[in-house]
Amino acid sequence: MTDKTQSIHGQWSSRFAFILAATGSAVGLGNIWKFPYITGENGGGAFVMVYLLCVAALGIPIMIAEIMLGRRGRQSPINTMQSLSKEAGADPRWHYLGWCGMIAGFLILAYYSVIAGWSMAYIVKDFFGGFINSNADEIQRLFENLMASPLQQIFWHTVFMIITMQLVMRGVQNGLEKAVRFLMPALFVILILLVAYAMSSGAYDQGMTFLFNPDFSKIDADAVLTAMGHAFFTLSLGMGAIMVYGSYLPSHVSIAKTTFFIAGADTIVALLAGIAIFPLVFANNLEAAAGPGLIFQTLPLAFGHMTGGWLFGLLFFILLFFAALSSSISLIEPAVAWLVENKNIERHQACVWAGSACWALGIGVVFSFNIWSDLKFFDKNLFELLDYLTANLMLPLGGMAIAIFAGWMMKQSHAEQELEIPAKGFQAWQFLIKYVSPAAVFLVSLHVVGVL
Ligand code: PHE
After folding, report:
1. Can you tell me the mean pLDDT for 119-137?
2. Confidence at residue 78, expressed as pLDDT on a 0 to 100 scale
3. Which CATH number characterizes residue 407's domain?
4. Which of 25, 45, 141, 208 would give a disulfide with 330, using CB separation of 3.0 to 4.6 Å?
5. Distance from residue 151's CA to the centre of ligand 1 (Å)
């Protein structure tokens, strides 16, 4: 099917392909690695509630807005914002939003790739029987050894970066689309298996209570900011990834329906990961607030003791790697699309440039887990700093700007024309992006800088 308007980079072959790719972008390390450990650090239930609320009230409306802007602009986020601000008669400086997002994606990928590298290292560890019959101490030592080794981590980070760039080089239909076809269903199945194992661990109830029983005395402004930031991070919002994917979306596809599907799938995967992990944490007297190592110190215990654990472990880390891959390609796509459009270079060259720069920054992230662990900026090592800066600040603020642009700058008739949803739904959406999203992000930010 040909479209009146189409991006120069190509287009998804169908609505299904877009759903897969956008779900692939959303479901990633954020759901399986990050969600459990930040939930553990922030006391459980209440944090989960705030996160779910943010997904519903901010994430879904902003995702609709971001896809819509992308599809209307049909270019990299920077150029999309430029032409849309022209069309709307708004200040041309709106294109800085695209810049900010491109930089955020770049900063995220630098550490994302390092963590994805851990999952690759764990594929090999499982393969050689590294988890079989290990106790909690041994599993912990395995993780600490990996953290202490810059060389191992740099190796895997490099391999991951090369694979990512290879995929991005192949472009929209060949690279991005094919990569995500079978992953999501497979990941889902293995998570269900892990949940079943967690049910038999003896601490299932305790895990569920921790996750779903809110104790609001456990959270403060910082926890609310983390929950809000994570809603943006996990849905890939606020930095142009979803916008650039939207720019490859055929004109006839319903944006709202697609969004509900993506956000639903993303949330289910995160909750399943939590349900699989926390019973194991409590059954083995592990620390819920163990930090970024949480899944690497809990799940191998399950794999080491369950029947068929060797195989499931292998499958799990392979799928985690693929989930990370289908997200990482979307983190760098805005930068690559922009380089191709503005610097007049070929796609593969753009990949080499963007990928190398990201890789170099990732080396610093590797060091922040060992030789530079004492090097702190604002009390945070480089990994923590990049994470805070992007997930807690750049993505929510980027999301807020997207909401303001779609709600206040763009002509209402244009938004209606893109979304084609019944009047009631449209009004609800407009209310959320005009008032609720900007106000929520603004208030939480004020709280954090200490004004409120
Ligand atoms: N959503 C991805 C995850 O949960 C991370 C991501 C963030 C991807 C921003 C693209 C853009 O792992």
Report:
1. 93
2. 85
3. 1.10.4160
4. 25
5. 26
Cβ atoms of 134 and 332 within 8 Å: the answer is no
Which pLDDT value is given to residue 283?
87
Closest protein CA for atom 11 of ligand 1 = 236
Q: Domain for residue 1, yes or no?
A: no
In a domain, 110, yes or no: yes
For residue range 2-13, list pLDDT tens digits in order: 344 667 666 667
Q: Model-level pTM greater than 0.85?
A: yes
Which atom belonging to ligand 1 lies closest to the Cα atom of 28?
12
Q: What pLDDT score does 90 carry? A: 84
Residue 298 structural domain: 15-448
Q: Is residue 9 part of a domain?
A: no
Residue closest via CA to ligand 1's atom 10 equals 236
Which residue's CA is the closest to the ligand 1 atom numbered 9? 236
What domain count does the chain have?
1
Paired tokens of 140: 């912990």
Contacts 24+ apart (CB under 8 A), 188-192: 188/269, 188/272, 190/312, 190/315, 190/316, 190/319, 191/269, 191/272, 191/273, 191/276, 192/272
Q: Is 236 in the pocket of ligand 1 (CB under 6 A)?
A: yes
| 237 C-alpha to ligand 1 centroid (Å) | 8
Nearest-angstrom CA–CA distance, 306 and 382: 37
Q: How far is the CA of 269 from the centre of ligand 1 (A)?
A: 13
